[in-house]
Specification:
The chain has 95 residues and is of the alpha+beta class. It has helices at residues 14-33, 61-70, 72-75; strands at 2-9, 37-45, 48-57, 79-89. Strands 2-3-1-4 form a four-stranded antiparallel beta sheet, covered by helices on one side. The radius of gyration is 13 Å and the shape is globular. InterPro entries: Dimeric_a/b-barrel (IPR011008), Sec-metab_biosynth-assoc (IPR051807), YCII (IPR005545).
Length: 95
């Protein structure tokens, strides 16, 4: 199942984001190699990272939920889970 995740950070979470970022990047890159994350971007406002967008490709909703609950930005209290959008999508195949 493919999902678009748009997650905004808690207010004043930049220090927490930077602390969790190495683990987040490492985990995201590993999942990209497996094809489970299609793309990942930082959301930028006023030249500062304020959130993320991630397009995922998990086999099931349960696998997606397991990833989300263990995502370093979730565990590190960076993403404001009250301010997150999760939308099922269908990514166009590359030509």
């Amino acid at each position: 199942m493919q999902y678009l995740v748009i997650a905004y950070d808690y207010d004043n979470a930049l220090d927490k984001r930077m602390e969790a970022r190495p683990e987040h990047v490492k985990a995201t890159q590993a999942l990209m190699k497996e094809g489970k994350i299609i793309s990942a971007c930082a959301l930028i406002e006023d030249e500062k990272m304020v959130g993320s967008s991630v397009v995922t490709n998990f086999a099931s909703e349960e696998e997606f939920e397991a990833w989300l609950s263990n995502e370093p930005y979730v565990k590190g209290k960076v993403w404001d889970m009250e301010n997150i959008q999760i939308v099922e999508v269908k990514v166009m195949p590359q030509a």
